[in-house]
């Protein structure tokens, strides 16, 4: 019996170890198959994203405008829609991407008031351009952090071109006009009339002196994946001046939701 027990013990230990490693491998395989982009080392994917574009400008000209008006240039809001192709370039989570997008850039100016007595003019303005953007040399890294969850970072140069847009100024005013007249007895009197209204002036991009429709820049961002769903936050920084020979550059913060096919 002792000899039989000794031989059974020698046989069962390797068997138990084999079963343990087999179960561990099965669990790992199940995790890898359910994690987002589980086959990223082999599969190319398309990702579509859409969301909010928070637009603003930076540079010395911005500071000059704010000093002259006494009001800060504020963010403008637009949209961003993109399609991106992902292709893994290593077995460690790195990928190359090509992104094509439709979006916006611009700014808004806080309302400025000019008052004299009861008379006033209140002006507010904004500039919004609609553009096409291409980022053909994106490099990124994606890593699983839990079952069905992963994180991603990416960076790329980009080119954009504004295909349409305009600067708009909205003015609201009130003026008192004093008009001399004669009453029925021939006496000179003054008639006071009040003029009130709202006017909107629109200037297309072609008529903005020195406006540069094209831009080159850098975008960097990251996001969180759950299975095939994605929340992405990306910052775009333009490197070409919006107005020729002026230090005024665009920047955009993109907050988008995405889905991978």
Task: Describe this structure in a few short sentences.
The protein contains 2 helices and 10 strands; from the N terminus they run H-E-H-E-E-E-E-E-E-E-E-E. It has 261 residues and is an alpha+beta fold. The protein has an 8-stranded antiparallel beta barrel.
Write the topology of this structure.
Elements: H1 2-34, E1 45-58, H2 60-69, E2 73-74, E3 76-88, E4 94-116, E5 119-146, E6 149-182, E7 188-204, E8 214-226, E9 229-238, E10 249-260
Antiparallel strand pairs: 1-3, 1-10, 2-4, 3-4, 4-5, 5-6, 6-7, 6-8, 8-9, 9-10
Essential attributes:
eight-stranded antiparallel beta barrel; 16% helix; elongated; 64% strand; disordered N terminus; 261 residues; alpha+beta
Biggest β-sheet: strands ordered side by side in the sheet: 1-3-4-5-6-8-9-10
Estimated structural class: alpha+beta
> How many E strands?
10
Content of β-strand: over 45%
On the 0 to 100 scale, the average pLDDT is 84
Q: In angstroms, what is the radius of gyration?
A: 32 Å
SS field, number of helical segments: 2
This entry's quaternary arrangement is single chain
- Whole-Å distance between the termini? 63 Å
Tell the overall outline. elongated
Instruction: Give the low-pLDDT segments.
Output: 1-36
Major sheet characteristics: 8 strands, antiparallel, barrel
Helix content: 10-25%
Q: Give the topology string: H per helix, E per strand.
A: HEHEEEEEEEEE
């Amino acid at each position: 019996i002792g000899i039989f027990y000794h031989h059974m013990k020698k046989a069962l230990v390797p068997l138990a170890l084999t079963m343990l490693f087999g179960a561990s491998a099965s669990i790992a395989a199940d995790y890898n198959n359910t994690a987002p982009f589980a086959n990223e080392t082999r599969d190319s994917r398309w990702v579509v994203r859409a969301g909010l574009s928070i637009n603003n400008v930076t540079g010395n000209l911005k500071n000059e405008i704010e000093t002259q008006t006494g009001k800060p240039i504020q963010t403008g809001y637009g949209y961003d829609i993109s399609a991106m192709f992902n292709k893994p370039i290593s077995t460690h989570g790195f990928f190359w991407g090509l992104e094509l997008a439709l979006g916006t850039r611009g700014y808004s100016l806080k309302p400025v008031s000019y008052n004299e007595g009861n008379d006033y003019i209140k002006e507010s303005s904004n500039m919004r351009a609609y553009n096409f953007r291409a980022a053909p040399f994106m490099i990124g890294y994606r890593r699983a952090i839990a079952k069905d969850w992963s994180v991603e970072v990416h960076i790329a140069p980009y080119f954009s071109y504004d295909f349409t847009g305009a600067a708009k100024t909205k003015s609201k005013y009130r003026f008192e006009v004093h008009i001399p007249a004669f009453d029925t007895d021939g006496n000179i009197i003054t008639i006071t009339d009040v003029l009130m209204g709202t006017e909107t002036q629109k200037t297309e991009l072609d008529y903005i002196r020195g406006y540069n429709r094209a831009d080159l820049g850098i975008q960097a961002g990251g996001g969180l994946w759950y299975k095939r769903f994605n929340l992405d936050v990306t910052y775009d920084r333009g490197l070409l001046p919006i107005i020729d020979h002026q230090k005024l550059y665009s920047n955009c913060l993109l907050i988008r939701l995405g889905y991978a096919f």
